[in-house]
Amino acid sequence: MKIVDFAVKRPVTMTILTAVVLILGGFTFSRMVVDLYPEMSFPAAVVMANYSGAGPEEVESRVTEVLEGAVNTVGGVQEVYSISSSGSSIVVVSFDWGTDMDNAIIDIREKLGVVENYLPDSVDKPMVLKMDPNMMPIIQVGISGENISLSQLQSVAEDKIKPRLERIPEVASVTITGGLEREVRVEVDPVKLQNYGLTLGQVNQVLMMENFNSSSGQVKEGQRQYYIRSLQQFETLDDIRAVAISTGTGATVLLRDIATVVDSYKDDTQITRVNLGSAVGIHVMKQSGANTVAACQAVKDELKQLQSELDVGLDVGVVMDQSVYIEQSLASTQTTIWEGALLAVLVLFLFLRNMRSTFIVFTAIPLSIIATFILMYFNGDTLNLITLGGLALGVGRMVDDSIVVFENIYRHRSLGMPALDAALTGASEVGSAVIAATLTLIAVFLPIMFVEGLAKVIFKPMALTVSFAIFCSLLVALTIVPLLSSRILTDDSMAKRDSGTGRIARIARTFGHWIDNLGEVYTKIVAWALGHRKTVSIVTTVLLVASVAATPLVGAEFMPAMDSGDIAISVKTDKGSQLENTDAIVAQLENQLHEIPEVTTIFSSIGSSANMFLSSGTQYDQAAISVKLVDRSDRDRGVDQVAEEIRTKAAEIAGAKISVTPTDMASQMSGGADINIEVKGDDLQVLRDLSEQIVAVVRSVPGTREVESSIADGNPEIQVKVDRQRAATFGLTPAQVAAEIKNAMQGTVATQYRVEGTEVDVRVRYVPEKHRDLEYLKNLTLRNNAGVGVKLSQIASFQLEQGPTQIDRVDQVRRATVTGNLLNRDLQSVITDIQQQINQINLPAGYTVEYTGANEDMIESFSSLGIALLLAVILVYAVMAIQYESFFNPFIIMFSVPTAFIGIVFGLLVTGRTFSVPSFIGMIMLVGIVVSNAIVMVDYLERLRRRGMERDAAIVEAGRVRLRPILMTAFATILAMAPLAIGLGEGIEAMAPLATVVIGGLLFSTLITLLLIPVVYSLFDDWLEKARRFIRRKSAPAAAAEGEVQ
Fold this sequence. Notes:
- It is a single chain.
- The chain is an alpha+beta fold and 1046 residues long.
- It has four domains: 2-31 and 354-490 and 512-558 and 858-1025, Multidrug efflux transporter AcrB transmembrane domain (Multidrug efflux transporter AcrB transmembrane fold), CATH 1.20.1640.10; 44-131, 2-Layer Sandwich (Alpha-Beta Plaits); 135-181 and 268-325, Alpha-Beta Plaits; 183-265 and 716-803, 2-Layer Sandwich (Multidrug efflux transporter AcrB TolC docking domain, DN and DC subdomains), CATH 3.30.2090.10.
- Strand 29 and strand 30 (813-822) form a beta hairpin.
- It starts with a helix and ends with a helix.
- 45% of the residues are buried.
């Protein structure tokens, strides 16, 4: 083989090339971006539009439906999901995977531009954003201090900290929550306003017209040209107080005569606390493509510098730091790689019984890993949990080719061949076999490139990483291993193989003798199997059928949960609850959390929902609490156990619905809740009734918890219905009435007042009343443009109702969503039980039920991966058929694939793990691994038969000779993956099912195929021989007749 000849005969060249790889690998490794998961872009966009003062149903009919109609005309749209709530419309547009989102955003903006004129005048211009994981904060900071007011904390955050953090190149944006925001209030006396015949609207308009800064052209003076700027800005509060307002009689009144102007703060809409103390929260988002670890470190360095510059007593502390978990996860994965490598070395030493020999084979691991970093870097991959997990999976496979090559070189060397000749002959003999084995494993990953959805986004980088690693290991096996063998396997080295006297050497000798004896026993077993082919076939078939029958016991889920030490708590109080009431309930829960020893950080946001991105407006009746636990190595309990204790404590708190959910990146990507059931239809009341029935069904199924419907009790409303005709008699329109009510109850921001370099809102409102109740609303005096007043009760009626808090729609149809979480059961079995009961519900015409979320993702991913698995089998066969120019041998080898399923089911049942996306990836990977052993055996068997050896004798001899490399490669792969299968480190839980599948499948496949492949080979060889004889008999008379004619 030319590559072997080149490597062995050009040692200097190979040394230089190896040095180049090592240097370049170290350089590229140091420059690779570090993140938790591969860079991903979700094919989704968000359209947001504000419609101040409108209720959910009005927002739906006048805004959301218009926006939905526009975005539905964009090409490639898969689904349109919308939320209509008070004053806001949010439309989420999902596209097919692979869509160019930059072009899609442009198309959406163009379509929205066409329909903007159909929206009400008071609707803000719709804003379009790309759904990006980078919109989630990578680091959260809490600012607090003793005897420091929230307004001061807010000022420090806005004026000092935020600008400094936004200057960091890796930072995209910084947002601030909590605190008190400054505001100038113009509190108008309604009696004085009435006496002068004025309205709040007129006050607003005058303030806006009296405060401006605009360019007014240019003027020439001599040789110079001057720009004209008209300045009429408020510089002090007295400037505001001195504003003159014309009355209807032609008189003028100063603002201070009818109103009080005060420097104050906006009403609390959100409260932030960190570890039970009042604080201001800062959320930092990174630039797309930036190194998360580097970005977090840069932020922390800047915060450290700021802390030294700020006043004494101010505490700037990091509450959540994504880089900590990333670094812990990557460190755990790297440790797993080296643990696997050391275990693989142990296997090599036990089989080879010589440190020099072990060193030769072991070089494949570090050289392959370093070379892989080069390929990853130029492919644009990042160092993350998935790519490093791919390296951990490939560690055992990295030495397989080197084992086969070295073992054959060593065998020739043991027979007395010179080192150089043994290296050339031994490597060349098995070169085609290791190339075929490597190509088959690479081939199985090709179909993953065509899998759609989240599974492809996550596992495509892993497939590429493993492919890079085993390709590099093949090059090492065909170059470095023969080169080192030709130099290291000297006569002296061969003589010292069993000369060690230490305990390890004695263990290795004992193990070696056991393997030698096993080889003799194996030849007898193979001989017996060839005489009892029917028995071997039946036993294998029974085991395979039993494993298929046991599959339902395994269960299935989309992605396995990971213990990141993060817990999300959602608090929902009674609808209409005031912020103070929600705050009091959260304070009780915070005190309970503070008593749990594993809890290190409590970050509470009162006045916002858990899903901050898809929520809008103020939600006084909701709160979100983020709980961070101490590192996994510092606690005895898992995150699920701590969450269970929190649920127990939360159950003691009355007046709120509290849900507790351990969170990680995987759960966030799959939609949050474990169970998602959608009910679609037009009527909200029917949807409410159906969703309540489904909630009862789900709660009755064992293994479910925290079940709720998205159609909850609505906010209590006082609906003001204006009598158009009576309002018209007073010169008022319904729109004017609505505007005056808003002015009276909330006030209106008329303009901005610039102070100390900051724009401060100037809000005009009536003097606050102690009792703003229904009676106050009825007696509210409204004035028309002529100054004539009328009480609101004279032109409107009032009704107490409970309207919807929000209206959800999917593909322009209203929907209700029932969500829930799992407890000690897998997703598939729970959904199956739920479906059986829901199928008994008689749905009205036009209403449907769909199972979405993690279940939908699981079904779609399993379907795509199932096709990928089938394609992998076909590709493996095709590669072998091309390599050997034969249909027969690859067909025999493929019998090793189904036997792996026996070990897959056994491994998952024993470990208590389920079928999941990682499990499926492991099955695909296993197709390429298990055939390697059969390839090695059948390749040598065919070589012996070509030399003239009888078939059964060749089968026995091939088994005896290839038993050692087969066991060596299998055990090296299994032990190298064992640390990953145990899954004790941070972040590697997601890869544990994959490793479990590979270990179980490879173990059983190796043990079974050592007998099955010889049996199947002999059976099909007999059938093939019978077919040949039959053809010869049929063709003989025809040949004889043709001879007679001639």
